Amino acid sequence: MILRSETSRVLSATVLVQALNTWAMLAIAAMAPLVAEGLAVAAVLVGYQISVMYLCAALTSVPAGGWVARLGPTRVSQLSLVAGALGLGLAATGSLVAVLAASVCIGVGYGMVNPASSLLLFARTTARDRSLVFSIKQTGVPLGGMLAGLVTPAAALAFGWQAALGGLVPLLLGAALVLQRPRRDWDRGTGTGAGPAPSAAEGAREVWCNPALRRLCTVSFLFAGVQVCLVGFLVAFAMADLGFGAVLAGALLATVQ
């Protein structure tokens, strides 16, 4: 199946946004013991940091559809990258309070990704190729996890964990800047700012009242919980209990992806 050039460009952009935001989400977990040592806290506390991020992502994803309708999906994708960059910049200051604030920013950015990318891709696909395109887009998650595991610990050992986080900031901001060029074309027909945004509560109620969607969401919640526990604690476990070095533990995280 050959995709149209416009669809390929949008797909490439959504994979990039997904990968960079996932990298931002997992950057601290990928070097949790190093960060914990720098903050003088226990490495297992990374679980709280991840919990804050995913809670904020979950809360953000509910109204994000309305933001996409008002601002346009490309603009919301840019905002997700800026939020992630802001969070990484805060965490790079090396303060425990800043890391908690950073977790909120990164989580908010991550919660915008799927509503924005879904609208971008849905408008440019047909029933025949939609499943393939959306599957390719979702590979941005393991790609971001691999980058977090392979690059972040090595950068932390070479330059320090704060620099490893700060070094990601220009990547996210650069991607947001690149999206500015096609934004007007890709957001055409959306983001007019006119009229009320779709009700988040109405959408949630529709999902809950549909037995099939309710079962799907429940099972997805359980699978996601297992995935988050694995990627969140794998590096800390490998270094503390298996005696792995930071780079090898990161490589294990990348392999799991």
Key phrases:
mainly alpha
Description:
The protein is globular. Helix 1 (5-26) packs parallel to helix 6 and helix 3 (46-71) packs across helix 11. The two termini are 26 Å apart. Helices cover 80% and strands 0% of the residues. It is an all-alpha fold and 257 residues long.
Secondary structure tally: strands: 0
Average pLDDT works out at: 90
Using only CA atoms, what is the Rg? 18 Å
Name the structural class: mainly alpha
Spans with pLDDT under 50 lasting ≥5 residues? none
Q: Output the number of helix runs.
A: 13
What is the chains' assembly state? Answer: single chain
Question: Would you list the SSEs in sequence order as H and E?
Answer: HHHHHHHHHHHHH
Distance between the termini: 26 Å
| Residues in β-strands, percent | under 5%
Largest sheet: none
Estimate the global geometry from the Cα principal axes: globular
Helical amount = over 70%
Put the structure in a nutshell.
The chain has helices at about 5-25, 30-40, 45-70, 75-90, 95-120, 130-140, 140-160, 160-165, 170-180, 180-185, 200-210, 210-240, 245-255.
Secondary structure blueprint with pairings:
Elements: H1 5-26, H2 32-39, H3 46-71, H4 73-91, H5 96-122, H6 130-138, H7 140-159, H8 161-166, H9 169-178, H10 180-186, H11 200-209, H12 211-240, H13 246-256
Helix pairs in contact: 1-4, 1-5, 1-6, 1-7, 1-9, 3-4, 3-5, 3-11, 4-5, 4-9, 4-10, 5-6, 7-13, 12-13
